[in-house]
Amino acid sequence: MNAIPPLQRWWRGRDRREHWLIGTMCLMLAAFAYAYGVLAPLHALGRDARARYDRAAADVLRVREQAETLRRMPDAASRQPVDLARVLDTLSDAGLDDRTTHRLDGDAIELELTDVEAAAVFAWLDRLEQGHATAPTMLHVERRATGVAARLRLPAGRPPPASQVGTP
């Protein structure tokens, strides 16, 4: 059975003003479906994209500020030369001397720590920076099953002469 002929008869039986009313109602229903079925999801996607963009832009600005801060840090002041005896003393104080090999390479001290706790290594580096105003010029830390292995290079200096020991 075809539903079109009865619909046509029904439509022809309506007054012209009813045609306008039904047409307007269908148009409003179509606009409602378009607004809530198409535009609302697009607006939600746009808000999500804007939020992601804002977070990414904030991250970029934060990283740029951190990079600028690092660039402005006095490089020479954070890497003061230190003599091997002081390095070995600080390693001994930190309990890391038994797992360390070292060698002097010109104006640098190269250390290799194996199977140590990461927290102990970073605590030692912090004490080295606080107590002796030095920091590694190169640091490589690798996680292993038994702990971490760290290779680092410190600027080597000469020990102070005996006449200057204890004087500021």
Structural account:
- It is a single chain.
- With 168 residues, this protein is an alpha+beta fold.
- The protein folds into two domains: 15-70; 84-155, Gyrase A, domain 2, CATH 3.30.1360.
- The protein has five helices and four strands.
- Strands 1-2-4-3 form a four-stranded antiparallel β-sheet.
- Helix 4 crosses helix 5 (118-132).
- The termini are far apart.
- The relative contact order is 0.10.
- Keywords: Membrane, Transmembrane, Transmembrane helix.
Tally of DSSP β-strands: 4
How would you sum up the global shape? rod-shaped
Query: SSE order, as H and E?
Result: HHHHEEHEE
Determine the N-to-C terminus distance: 108 Å
What is the CATH top level name of the largest domain?
A: Alpha Beta
Name the average pLDDT: 84
- Structural class call reads alpha+beta
Which strand order does the major sheet show?
1-2-4-3
Please report which band the strand proportion falls in: under 5%, 5-15%, 15-25%, 25-35%, 35-45% or over 45%: 15-25%
- Low-confidence spans: 164-168
Number of domains: 2
Please tell me how large the radius of gyration is: 37 Å
Number of helices: 5
Helix content: 55-70%
- The CATH topology of the largest domain comes to Gyrase A, domain 2
* Second CATH tier, the architecture of the largest domain: 2-Layer Sandwich
Report on the biggest sheet.
4 strands, antiparallel
